[in-house]
UniProtKB/TrEMBL annotation:
Protein name: Delta like canonical Notch ligand 4
Highest taxon in the source lineage: Eukaryota
Acetylation among keywords: no
Domain Notch ligand N-terminal: 27-125
Amino acid sequence: MAAASRSASGWALLLLVAFWQQRAAGSGVFQLQLREFANERGVLASGRPCEPGCRTFFRVCLMHFQAVFSPGPCTFGSVSTPVLGTNSFAVGDDSSGGGRNPLQLPFNFTWPGTFSLIIEAWHAPGDDLRPGE
């Protein structure tokens, strides 16, 4: 009888520990290194020329994996750069205008393993180095 009581107590303790056990939480930083960008003709996606040149900044979106891309929220995060150059240019390790290279997207969840990465190049008209979002 004493052995059965100890066995039941052991199972109860094991169940209690299993319920109190915390799941592991993941966190980290996704980094993307920009190297260069080429727009030799200095034109927008529409084919119209930028005047006086295409002042380029980037928007990076990290989202759940999609075999066929469809627009939606950046579920894992997004980041935009300041204007990094005009038309075609190389991007240094520490980009100009207060930007950071590599770009960093911190996350506080268990990494999903698969993801979709969308990199958009945009033109910022005017003299502002920080594009509006």
